[in-house]
Amino acid sequence: MKMTKIVRSTADIFYPFCLIFGFYVVAHGHLTPGGGFQGGAVIATGAALLIVARAYEDISQRIRKNALKLCESIGLFMFLAAGLSGLFLGHPFFANWLAQAGSIFGQPVAWGPNPGDLNTAGLLPLMNIAVGIEVLGGLSIILLYMISGVKEKE
Amino acid sequence: MSNMISFFVTSIFSFVVYLLLTAGSGSVLRLWSSQEIMAGAVLGLITGFAARKFFCSQRQSAPLNPLRWITAVLYVIGPFFIEMAKANVDVAYRVITGRIRPGIVRVKSGMKTDLGTLMLANSITLTPGTLTVGIDEETNDLFVHMINIPEGTEARESLEAREVFSIFNCPAWIRRIAE
Amino acid sequence: MTISSIAQHLPALLIAVPLLTAFLTPLIGGVNRTLRMLWVALGISATSAIGLALAWKVFTTGTVLYVFGAAAVGQVLPMDSGGIPIRIIFEVDAFSALMIVIASISAFAITMYSLVSESECSGQDGFYALLFLLVVGIMGMVATGDLFNFFVFLEISSLAGAALVAYRVDKGVAVEAGLKYALLSTLGALCVLIAIGLLFAQYNALNLATLASRLQFTTLDKIALALLIVPLAMKCGAVPMHFWTPDTYATAPSSITALLVVSSQASLYGLFRVLFSLYGHLVQFNYATFGWFVIILGVLSMFVGVTMAIPQKDVKRLMAYHAVSQTGYMLLGVGVGLAVLGNRSALNAYGLTAMAGGIFHIINHAMYKGLLFLTAGAIFYRTGTRNLNKLGGLGHTMPWTMVFFMIGALAIAGIPPFNGFASKLMIYESVFRFSPFLSIVAMVVSILTLASFVKVFHSIFMGPRREEFAAAREVPAAMIFGMALLAVVVMLFGLFPQTFIDGMITPAVTALVDRGAYISAILGGH
Amino acid sequence: MILLAIHILILLGLIVSAGLAVYFKDLLSAAIALAAFSLLLSIEFYLLQAPDVAIAEAGIGAGLTTAIFIIAIRGTKRFEENE
Amino acid sequence: MLSKILINFPLIAVVLIAMMGLSAMVFKRNIVKILMGVTILESAVNLFLVATGYREGGIAPIFTNAPSTHMVLPTVQALTLTSIVIGVATSAMMLSFAMIIYKKYGTVDVRKIRKLKG
Amino acid sequence: MDVAWTMHTGFGSWNPALWLAALLIALVVALAIRALGRKDYRKNSAQTKPFISGNEEPAHGGGHIPASNLYWGFLESMKAYYERLVPLHTGMLGDYLVWFLGVLAAVLVIGLVI
Amino acid sequence: MILNVLIWAALLIGLFFNALGVIGILRFPDVYTRLHADTKATTFGSIFTSLAVMLYGVSQFFSTTDGQYAALVFHTIIAVIVLAVTNATGAHAIARAAHKRGHGPNPSVVDRLKETSK
Amino acid sequence: MTIWIFSVLVMVALMLLAMIRLFKGPTSADRVVALDAINTLVVAAMIVLGVVFKQIIFIDVAIIYALLSFVGTLYISKYLGGEL
Amino acid sequence: MRTAFISAILLILLGGFIYLASDLSFGNPAVTDMDDYFIRHGQEQCGANNIVTTVVFDYRGFDTLGEATVLFTAVLGVGIMFRKLRKGEEYEND
């Protein structure tokens, strides 16, 4: 059953807020506290907010399980590919070969609470993004599955 | 078409929030770096795509008008804050003396949109001795728990929203912002 | 990517290839069934090939090190770190390579088998992905040289194992077993994590070799030792903590049970690694105490396991108790080696042989117990029951299964010329020099094993045809292939034992006993 | 010194809320106590200068774990049986 | 002695919390309650890991202000992150097991969930 | 013999090839003995009919002994042992945890005392 | 100087209202009145402590012209907004749940919601 | 400067006081109220602690906290209202 | 009887762990060479200000892969639990 209009409106307003805040945490993982896991968890909590505010039948139509599964697999694949990418260039597995490489990526980073240089640190932001995608898919699909287990019992 | 509008509204909202979050990172306007603005634009578009069905679900054009945003800010730091301070003094008085006369009354909201109802409900919850307990989904009437019902009020079928607030006409402000 | 560069990155590929297969299986399985089968077969072939190639490299050229994320391949210690390893290092020595061989062969046979045996169930994408994750967990546990990494892979194998145990929901019984397994594994893993925290707080290192070189054996280290060995002994099914074993092995799909045996042996690997490479050869380390601890665990496991097996009615539950009992042999053999580790002459006289017997038994047990579980699965596949009282007369219709079962049963009972006999002989003879009583117990257990398998053979295959199993016929070719592979390995190990002992077992024993070499492979010097 | 006092107070709160989570027979109350435990644990991480861990504990411990437990209580039953 | 307890109070609190988790696991009979015990135990272990890496007066290992090397140890925080995610994954899986068990058996009492015995 | 066939245990040796040879010889002897059997054996006659204690075999596999009856004597003689051991396997999750923690406590005590 | 006094005042007011809120939670007779204390007093107190932080940030921003203090102010504003909205909505959700559960307001002089839901 | 850390101390003490209601609360709803109060206090304490430690970025934790514990409260109240 | 036995076990564990807790010294780790390396070189080698992130994704990135895999495993496990079973897929053990 859905909750009241007040809760639903709040959830609707906070859902993009959760998303953008999660993206902020993921994108600044190498500069400020946070990273892929934390940001993914924030975004997944946004999904949890939607799930709790609406009825299951409504939400299962709007959020597709298959899309989330795809998110998860793609995120993991990206993470693994980022690790494996060094192999083709003669570096070991998980070598951060892009750091300090000099071109668009890999400039040295400045001090400061938020220096604003998102493209430093080589592979780390890419890995952060990959893990963020994976975690948001994984955690929200766990919630969806468990709620479906409750609902389909009756 | 309305789909596009809600998409852009959500994106702009996200972009503003992102800029607030990343303030103090660089030299544009002494606050932002160019990279942050670019990343914010991209992430705002993504968020707009993902959340467009939720943020502006009922085709309301209220958030589009920048004047309303300014009114909202004024409302929050002006009437709302004073009401809230008064509410807290009231609650403090009740906490210390323990003199309460609680009950749940029906309040006619007169709001038509969800956003207005939300703002009114939250304003009521945060202001004098009142707490929104329930809502009538069709008429948007609120059921409000009051910590101190004035004598004689409990016999009335429903109250006007204006009567819940003491000094300012908050419902009018909200109507100006959200409808 | 040339051949030589692939050879350089074998330890990384050992984890990456099955992981890649697992990650993409849900995507590919959504497309087409046949495509998924091909993908799974391809993935397991590549994984096994990489595992065997890595083991070959280790057995021919010595310990292989792989540093994840180093600036250059082969740079173990960074220049400016003051001689300490700061990254995760895979240290694959001969003992690890032996375990990798076991895992590769078993995983290959089991996956081929399960391509057919699980084809009737729903949710196969998850099944195959979890199968690969279990393989990843096992491979990572045996290959890693980093304590926290070991914990992570322990969790992967535990969780994947628990999910697979509960795969056939079976009116909740399998889920019950899965819950038990998951909860005990979690508790054990948390104990391991506390031990890691203790060691890290004192020595600020996670690398096994660095920790070993810095260990002082303070009281905190003793607590850490207890917190490390008890969970690992629990995970390998030693007796006072073996209760999860029959529940889990009995209800899991048969192919998974065969892989869970390997997974529990990976825990056994961890136990030996902690006892020998991390704590062994310390001056204050009391070999006799911990040696006898392992020996007592082993003897209890042997005896209780086999006696509990005899009255069982469920064929897989019976085999599970035998798995407990056979684990006792390994613990006994290696425990005798540990007990005399400080005594050079006794070690050379019989300790090394006992350890060789114990370690040879690991690989033998994985092969024949896997074979037995696969035959049990084949019987279940055709008849739909595991109850010995209901079965009978299947020898008429399932001759190949009968032959494979017979090979496995004779091997587990220690009948020559199968492989069980070779390792058991080594254990008997060397343990007799240590303590005749233990040796006699081991022989009695072997006899009881034979007795209980006679019962199983009689109940399943002997007797006239039964009406209710008239439709039962021989299982499909892929399942026969999986069983035949393991049977061939069993025969090979039994017929040419010395080749394998010289090539694989003795280097493994040397790697296990020689703690200095393990440390100096990473830190250099010594 | 005041920092140490804060530490000790929060740890006392942690112990009390863990005890409450174990003590309550009503599983919903236990879940609430668990959420409070998670909250206090997060501020303890914060005090120990681990903001990354505090964020992770906040997101996963307070939000999602509570949700998962509540769903599981809904899927089973709310009260522990007595002896 | 008292000063030692005061200084080491976080660690002693960790031990007490862990014991509460363990006692919930051992004495309680409801599976969900047992899993709450597991969660408490996991949290205690996480707190222990972070506490071992704390340095008196150290700052968080993030370079925000002027460079300083007196930071708390970063490795344990990384380990704890890993451990938290593993914990939530384990809890979610075991709770879904508990839900299925309730569906099939009609009870979540561990003394009644014993079809596998002997 | 070839070295690959011989296993040295440190105290003696074991040779599967020799054992196989012995097995072959035994097989040959067995076949020889079989060849000395009666020549008037016929298939599908009363000669091949199985009898149990002088009675005809019951139909439909009724003569097949169920597994649980097979080691009745053994179980009966070890009754005292089994009556102690089997109840320990209660199947209860709490007991499993208690056993684990008990062994942990025991090892802790042993390790700290010695 | 004046800013310092303001900061002190804001902090003390915030603490006072926080304390009142908690005392109200302990003293009031039923769920709804406790929610009054919770949502109003505690939120108001937190707003005032955050206001102190904002004042501090503003004063530092104008004295040092360091961009990070702007970040401090903005982040605190966002935290306060989020806190206020979530607290109000959460209070509503709790009150409604308690009412649906059947915990009527006690003591009360009138209960219109109960009359309509019948 | 000690005023900041002192106010944190007061807030933590208030959290412990609120825990009394968590313990006593006759109904689950009362406990949720106490949880909500603790949650608000934690957020306030985190914001102030950000100033104490002179770490601006620590405020992020407070935002995430205010955002996410709300979800927990909603789940609890949804279950309590019998709507989950 | 059972309760007393379990309590004894828990008390022994409590004693051991209390000893453990009082033997370590909080706030003053004895050896810190590995972490000092991370703090000194983490920023210049990886170009990230957050040392925890460098440890999580660079120095110990392989652990993180394992962690992500654990989450994937749990998702698969939960998915397998709540899948729709075919008819006749369940057997009763006896």
Distance between the termini of chain D: 47 Å
Task: Give the strand tally of chain H.
Answer: 0
Structural class of chain D: mainly alpha
Q: Per the principal axes of the C-alpha atoms, what is the gross shape of chain H?
A: flat
* Continuous helix count of chain H: 3
- Main sheet: strands, sense, barrel of chain H: none
Shape of chain D: flat
For the CA atoms, what is the radius of gyration of chain D?
14 Å
Compressed to H and E, one letter per element, the order of chain H equals HHH
Tell me the fraction of residues in β-strands of chain D, as a range.
under 5%
Average pLDDT of chain D: 86
- What percentage of residues of chain H falls in helices of 4 or more residues? over 70%
Mean pLDDT of chain H: 84
Q: Helix and strand string of chain D, N-terminal first? A: HHH
> What percentage of the residues of chain H does DSSP assign to strands (E)?
under 5%
Structural class of chain H: mainly alpha
Using CB atoms under 8 Å apart, which protein chain pair has the greatest interface?
A: C-F, 70 and 49 residues
Q: What count of domains describes the coordinates of chain H?
A: 1
Key words describing this protein structure:
heterononamer; C: 526 residues; mainly alpha; two-stranded antiparallel sheet; 20 helices; globular; I: 94 residues; 4 helices; 0% strand; flat
Overview of this structure, please?
The complex is a heterononamer. Chain A is an all-alpha fold and 154 residues long. Chain A has helices at 5-27, 36-53, 56-62, 65-88, 123-151. Chain G is elongated. Chain H is mainly α and 84 residues long. Chain H has one domain (2-81). The chains are: A mainly alpha (154), B alpha+beta (179), C mainly alpha (526), D mainly alpha (83), E mainly alpha (118), F mainly alpha (114), G mainly alpha (118), H mainly alpha (84), I mainly alpha (94). The E-F interface holds E 22, 25-27, 29, 31, 34, 110-111, 113-118 and F 86, 89-94, 97-98, 101.
Could you give the topology of this structure?
The complex is a heterononamer.
Chain A: H1 5-27, H2 36-53, H3 56-62, H4 65-88, H5 123-151
Helix pairs in contact in A: 1-2, 2-5, 4-5
Chain D: H1 2-23, H2 27-47, H3 51-75
Helix pairs in contact in D: 1-2, 2-3
Chain E: H1 2-7, H2 9-27, H3 31-52, H4 74-105
Sum this structure up briefly:
The complex is a heterononamer. Chain E has 118 residues and is mainly α. Helix content of chain E is 67%, strand content 0%.
